[in-house]
Amino acid sequence: MTNINSLSIVVPVFNEEDNLPLLFGEINKALSSLDKEWQVIFVDDGSSDNSLQVIRSMGEEHPEVKYIAFAENCGQSAAFKAGFDAATTDVVITIDADLQNDPADIPALLREYERGYTMVIGWRQKRQDTLQKKVASKIGNAIRNKLSRETVKDTGCSLKVMDTKMVQKIPMLTGMHRFLPTLMKMQGATVSEVPVNHRHRQHGESKYGILDRAKATFLDLLAIRWMQSRHFRYSIKDRNL
Ligand code: UDP
Ligand code: MG
């Protein structure tokens, strides 16, 4: 059993102005009844809409709203990394800004974590995306599992709870947010999967094309496979420092 006292929700934001107040409202509703210290770290990834202004004005009203704003668009992995590095809480929770993930699932993920895991990931049993995207994602997930010898049901779900110190150690290269379970396992993480709700995107647009994502992910997958083959762990029997 682990006790989580404090948590940071890390939200990568690229042109999501209409989603942000709704998202914060839902997070607030899901977390305010829990007896835990919490904050939301919005990482504005060089948005060209009013996302940053919206975040700043939410911050004036709510002390739980923290933010980091990039000077230019650096990608979702960089946004996650900046949020992970800024967190000083027991765990970090990742969630997309677009409301496709449901913050109401967070308490159940935390309960699962507290059973003794160091990573809990959401599994979108009923995905609400276009058929094209669902098929691409299923194929992508299967290839990823095969090549990285994993059995993760849904690596692409952004809703995850992770031990802060472990996630801060993983190398964050562009695209690496798609391999967080494998990278966390390399740090010794124990992983559990929990079914979560999934919703259609109501505001703003998806930032990725299916083909571009497939190509980039495949190359990253080869890098992950190589990292797995070279990865080592050691256990210490004695030390004087
Ligand atoms: N995002 C980001 N930087 C980017 C692309 C996306 O911070 O360069 C954010 C985006 O605002 C969203 C999350 O990453 O919060 C996932 O993006 P999206 O919903 O477009 O991806 P999809 O759900 O289509 O996989
Ligand atoms: Mg999305």
Automatic annotation (TrEMBL):
Q: Which residues form the Glycosyltransferase 2-like domain?
A: 8-166
Q: Which GO terms describe its molecular function?
A: glycosyltransferase activity
InterPro entries assigned to the protein according to its UniProt record, in alphabetical order: Glyco_trans_2-like, Glycosyltransferase_2, Nucleotide-diphossugar_trans
- What EC number(s) has UniProt assigned to this enzyme? 2.4.-.-
Sorted UniProt keywords:
Cell membrane, Glycosyltransferase, Lipopolysaccharide biosynthesis, Membrane, Transferase, Transmembrane, Transmembrane helix
| Coiled-coil regions listed | none
Name the CDD domains for this protein.
DPM1_like_bac
**UniProt xrefs under Pfam families:** Glycos_transf_2 (PF00535)
**Superkingdom in the source lineage:** Bacteria
- Name the UniProt record assigns to this protein: Glycosyltransferase family 2 protein
